[in-house]
Amino acid sequence: MDLKTATAIRRLRLVSAPEAISFLLLLVCSVLKRTTDFNAVPVMGAVHGGLFVLYVIFWADAWNRAKWSLKTAGLYFVLSVLPAGGFFAERMLRREAEDAVIATRARKEGVAGA
């Protein structure tokens, strides 16, 4: 994995958890809006919308650079629209990056099967 691909995956990974948190907070704010006088939906909606747009941009960049299959790219996109899906995406992306680092080190050291 080259540096630009690793950077694209890292950016997507770093925005995954905040996007998931903002989604969950937006859901809480929506319930509070309906049940109390508290209305933070416009603020949380804007925050979540901005993070979602960043996620989609970083997702498209990572898909392009990492040459993911349609199934893999689709999975990461579906995770972005599910509540708490970003946490699963972050975990999977971290594992993918760690595996790539291990494979790169093995290739540099000339280990067979890498």
Automatic annotation (TrEMBL):
A single cellular component GO annotation: plasma membrane
Pfam families assigned: DUF3817
Recorded superkingdom: Bacteria
InterPro entries according to UniProt: DUF3817_TM
Record-annotated DUF3817 domain positions: 9-95
Membrane topology: Multi-pass membrane protein
Keyword Transmembrane helix assigned: yes
Alphabetical UniProt keywords: Cell membrane, Membrane, Transmembrane, Transmembrane helix
Location(s) in or outside the cell: Cell membrane
Spans traversing the lipid bilayer: 39-60, 72-89
Name of the protein this chain belongs to: Integral membrane protein
